[in-house]
Design a protein that fits this description.
Elements (H helix, E strand, L loop, with lengths): L5 H5 L13 E4 L3 E6 L2 E6 L12 H16 L6 E10 L2 E4 L5 E9 L7 H6 L5 H16 L5 H5 L3 H15 L9 H17 L1 H9 L3 E3 L9 E4 L2 E4 L7 H4 E3 H14 L3 H15 L5 H21 L8 H21 L2
Length: about 325
């Protein structure tokens, strides 16, 4: 369990060397996030959801270091380091190695108003914006190798396992946010594409397109401030969700723009990425991965319908959003 004094201690401005005016706490199902002025400290909760396991201090130490290492590839100026938290004479102390009880990921605070989804809401995202994002991402992925370990995640058997798992896990939602007709059409199209295109998947491996990617590249994980582009919150806790074809990451962001009714911006982003990277073969894979990404989002949102801890209003929103993702995937395959 989380140390009983951790949250209380980290909510006090005097806990931090830079003495912020105030501290704000944001919680997710896997993290405590302490916003302390210009700096952010992120603590992993000791939870086990099957696809991730942070239940021991050693595991949390490992994964917080992985989060630092992996995200520095995308935003080196945002991810600053891993800071130990110790207990001395009953008091918790930041950046002390004597009796470590927890580890915190130290980050530079990003301006929430410059998140890509916020800019989109205020109609401040232009084609030039998305061209910049495409070029930036191409530069990052060019520096990431496609090694033997990465290539194993591009094999059709591995990809097929991920795709079929999605359908198995969402079959129970037929008749709720997804109709039988929509479910069967997406499943049939996805399986047929894989069956008929083994050579295409093999070609992507041969061309070095399977890499240690981001895994969760959508509008809420990109920030644009002046000339800077920050990409953050790469998946560190499960390699199967992160390794894969770069086309899958590109498709994710493109799909997210489609979902928000900004198809032209999505197309501009894809074109800019392909032009900057020279990866013209991505065009043959993009639709498959857009269907896959839309369906993953539909699945994750559907899971909220079974969460007894959320209220009726949140459940109704989850239902509408899940249906919209299912419908988008269906639109792609028709």
């Amino acid at each position: 369990m989380t140390h009983p004094k951790l949250v209380g201690s980290m909510m006090k401005p005097e806990f931090y060397p830079h003495k912020p005016d105030s501290v704000e706490l944001i919680q997710t199902h896997i993290s405590f996030i302490f916003i302390s002025g210009d700096l952010v400290y992120k603590i992993k909760k000791p939870v086990d959801f099957g696809f991730l396991d942070f239940t021991t201090l050693e595991k949390r130490r490992f994964y917080v270091n992985e989060e630092l290492r992996l995200n520095k590839r995308f935003s080196p100026d945002v991810y600053l380091g891993v800071i130990p938290i110790s207990e001395l004479n009953g008091t918790l102390i930041l950046n002390n190695k004597s009796n470590i009880i927890e580890y915190a990921l130290k980050m530079t605070r990003i301006n929430e108003n410059h998140m890509l989804y916020k800019l989109l809401e205020s109609d401040k995202v232009t084609k030039d914006t998305m061209k910049r994002v495409g070029k930036h991402l191409a530069r990052v992925y060019k520096s990431i190798p496609s090694d033997k370990k990465s290539q194993s995640f591009g094999k059709l058997d591995t990809i097929s396992t991920n795709v079929i798992e999605n359908f198995d896990q969402t079959r129970k939602y037929i008749g709720r946010p997804v109709s039988d007709k929509v479910f069967n059409a997406i499943e049939r199209w996805s399986k047929t594409f894989m069956k008929n295109n083994k050579a295409l998947f093999d070609k992507r491996i041969e061309q070095g397109c399977i890499k240690d990617c981001h895994g969760d590249l959508h509008l809420q994980h990109i920030c644009i401030e002046d000339n800077n582009i920050f990409i953050f919150d790469c998946i560190e806790f499960n390699e199967r969700f992160r390794f894969g074809d770069v086309a899958s990451d590109v498709a994710f962001l493109s799909m997210d723009l489609d979902y928000n009714g900004k198809n032209e911006l999505g197309n501009t982003f894809v074109d800019a990425y392909i032009k900057a990277s020279g990866d013209t073969g991505m065009k043959e894979m993009l639709l498959f991965y857009k269907v896959y990404r839309a369906y993953v989002r539909a699945k994750v949102t559907s899971f909220m319908l079974d969460d007894e801890s959320i209220g009726d209003s949140d459940r109704e929103n989850a239902f509408r959003n899940a249906k919209k993702y299912y419908d988008l995937a269906y639109e792609y395959v028709n």
